[in-house]
Amino acid sequence: MSLLETFKKLDSATKHSLADIKSPRLLAFSALEISESRCGIDRLSSEHIVACLEAAGVAVKKISIIRALAAATGCVSLKKEDGESFYKLMTKGKREIEHVLEGEKMSVVRIEKNQPRTARQEISDIFKNLVGIVRICDPYYGIRTLDSLDYFPLQTDVKFLTSKTNETGRKLQGEMNDFKKERPNVEFRTVGKNAGLHDRFVVTNKMLLILGHGLKDIGGKESFVIRLEKDLVPDLIKETTRAFDLRWKTGTKI
């Protein structure tokens, strides 16, 4: 994913955090930190910083960024390449924005009742950026579950662990078969009632999403999604993944 695309696809909580920043200095520091942590690019020019912030929906003047960084002695390092200045955020500068970007480690999205289109967009914004192996625990599944699973990136491996469905007949099986043909990287398994499958969540190696309702009910009922980053709950993510994998091994493929 390109640098600008990364900023464009930032989660809404991070975008709102950036939009609330009034200081060009902190905006520049935030852009440098996100660029390094998410893209591995540790030096940006003032022009790059402005473009990245604009991609995230934040407008700032280039001259304001230049002046702010010129006064940020000890917080950024400066390197000249072909007459252009490139900046790297140093530890001192990172300390200044720890509280600013703290919000990206946890966010809560409220899903309104009877607003399915809005709900699908909000869920899509959350799911489309997930990478690596995605583990989903959801006690009930149905045709609408497949619609929600389509929001995950095509290249993502998804393990969907469930227990039962209230939908029966050829229609559900036909939809499942069609879905599997187009999304072979999504695997479904069921476990019995004694497995104690009650919670609804999505977990990756970087974050945990706690779902108020199952994927098939998104938008039909009032609900919420709690997003927790690994830096905030590393032990919880590790334990949740371990428990999921134990149940997964006992599951039966659908």
Describe the structure concisely for a colleague.
By secondary structure, this protein is of the alpha+beta class.
Task: Explain this structure.
The chain has 254 residues and is α+β, with helices and mostly antiparallel strands. It folds into 2 domains: 3-99, Arc Repressor Mutant, subunit A (Orthogonal Bundle), CATH 1.10.10; 106-253, Endonuclease Chain A (Endonuclease, Chain A, 2-Layer Sandwich), CATH 3.30.870. Helices cover 41% and strands 21% of the residues. It has helices spanning 3-8, 12-19, 24-39, 46-55, 62-70, 91-96, 116-127, 143-149, 170-182, 234-250; strands at residues 44-45, 76-81, 84-89, 106-111, 133-137, 157-162, 186-190, 201-203, 207-211, 223-229, 252-253. The chain is elongated, with a radius of gyration of 21 Å.
| Individual helix count | 10
Helix content: 40-55%
State the strand order across the main sheet: 4-10-9-8-5-6-7-11
Instruction: Give the CATH superfamily of the largest domain.
Output: Endonuclease Chain A
Number of strands: 11
| Structural classification | alpha+beta
The total number of structural domains is 2
Structural shape: elongated
Radius of gyration: 21 Å
What is the architecture of the largest domain at the second tier of CATH? 2-Layer Sandwich
User: Between the first and last Cα atoms, what is the distance in angstroms?
Assistant: 33 Å
In percent, how much strand structure appears in the residues?
15-25%
What's the CATH first level of the largest domain? Alpha Beta
The profile of the biggest β sheet is: 8 strands, mixed
Run of helices and strands: HHHEHHEEHEHEHEHEEEEHE
Uncertain runs:
none
Provide the residue-averaged pLDDT: 88
Could you name the CATH topology of the largest domain? Answer: Endonuclease, Chain A
